[in-house]
Amino acid sequence: MKDLTPDPGTLDPIEKASRDEITALQTERMRWSLQHAYDNVPHYRQSFDTAGVHPSDFRMLSDLSRFPFTQKADLRANYPFGMFAVPRDQVARIHASSGTTGQPTVVGYTQNDLTNWGAVVARSLRASGLKPGDLLHNAYGYGLFTGGLGIHLGADALGLTTVPVSGGMTQRQVRLIEDFRPKGITVTPSYALSVLDEYAAQGLDPRESPLEVGIFGAEPWTNAMRQEIEAAFDMHAVDIYGLSEVMGPGVANECVETKDGLHVWEDHFYPEIVDPATGEPVAEGERGELVFTSLTKEAFPIIRYRTRDLTRLLPGTARSMRRMEKVTGRSDDMIILRGVNVFPTQIEESIMATAGLAPHFQIELSRPDRMDQMAVLCEAADQTSDSDALSRALADHIKQTVGISVSVTVGPTGSVARSQGKAVRIIDNRG
Ligand code: DLL
Fold this sequence. Notes:
The chain has helices at 19-40, 42-51, 72-77, 111-127, 146-158, 170-180, 189-201, 223-233, 344-353, 387-401, and strands at residues 93-96, 106-109, 135-138, 161-163, 184-187, 213-217, 236-243, 248-254, 262-264, 269-274, 288-294, 305-311, 313-314, 323-324, 329-330, 335-337, 340-342, 357-366, 373-380, 407-411, 426-428. The longest helix has 22 residues, at 19-40. It starts with 18 loop residues before the first helix and ends with a strand. It is of the alpha/beta class. It has ten helices and 21 strands. The protein has a nine-stranded mixed β-sheet, sandwiched between helices. Strands 10-11-12-15 form a four-stranded antiparallel β-sheet. Bound molecules: 5'-O-[hydroxy(phenylacetyl)phosphoryl]adenosine. 5'-O-[hydroxy(phenylacetyl)phosphoryl]adenosine binds at residues 97, 140, 145-147, 217-220, 239-244, 248-249, 307, 309, 327, 330. 5'-O-[hydroxy(phenylacetyl)phosphoryl]adenosine is lined by residues 97, 140, 145-147, 217-220, 239-244, 248-249, 307, 309, 327, 330.
């Protein structure tokens, strides 16, 4: 793999700023953001008043914990435009979450917000090893989802040549990668595996592909999966994080030279970690639920948003801004199996650690006789291998590392549903 470390001279000054400078900027911006939300969004005025806090109570960053949280339910209750802090005609762009359950969550951006979003995505793409003039194959979905258009904004801001492929039509993805010869690909890690399958189907060697870096996010994935993808394509694989409520992709990104967690672009997004059960801030470096407050957003300021994503904050390394560890999973996706907490990422790690298994999997939950059961559906990398031996090996690994008994089915190639974007990891038949 080539060294893609960016030239330090190309970084934004804030990427090299001292902690004191970052804190001073955050404090000033936080004051503005709290006041802006209070003055312009009835929901925030009411929730601050109910909690007995006023933006003038904010003097330093530790005061933020006195302000109330915002939850997804608050955004739904204010559907569609009730959380906007500017008149609708100043909103330049709308995005929305898929809303598979209940109402979609609608978010908006002013022209300034779009500029800032482009800047943080550009910073993310540069941290990933891309530079002006490079070609980018953008396979995140275009549309209401923030992935495609968000990456596109940043690619324009950085000065890349963007191929706006969007998701789906996997054969065509491979054809375009081979013909246009992009240096980077932006895509969910699970869809990257579908692209990898297609390389095999076309009899092409993915290690010979022009790709030098993949920028993967929008769903949890493990370091074991990183190694799998890096080896398969002979390219770097870095992690990009974000969520529509906070902005979209580009809230945090790994640096290609370190790959040691994602630097949170703290000049725009202020992170906290709280205990998911009590909402109390955890001690520095402890794991918990990630909470974000926007520092510059005009159209859709967001105060102490409970992301449900579980991770921890670590000090800066390649950049002075703090890092978040790779997300283990969402608290919503935590399975409690006979008293043991399990995340799909733990099953992913076991699959990657079991030689002979392909990286595709789904988890099926059922409740026969009022006892929860977990079945893991996966595939052999090589169809001639002994699927009984593979399933025993995986079940043993899961028993030893996660501490639960599961049934494993190693099916034929293609038996596990392939991802076209965000993978569906859990099929819940518990009724
Ligand atoms: O998934 C934004 C995005 C697009 C991020 C493209 C990165 C790349 P939403 O659809 O609102 O936005 O979903 C946000 O996806 O709360 C996490 O649970 C999950 N997620 C996003 N990035 C990561 C990641 C986009 N790198 C939700 N690792 C978030 C783990 C991630 N989970």
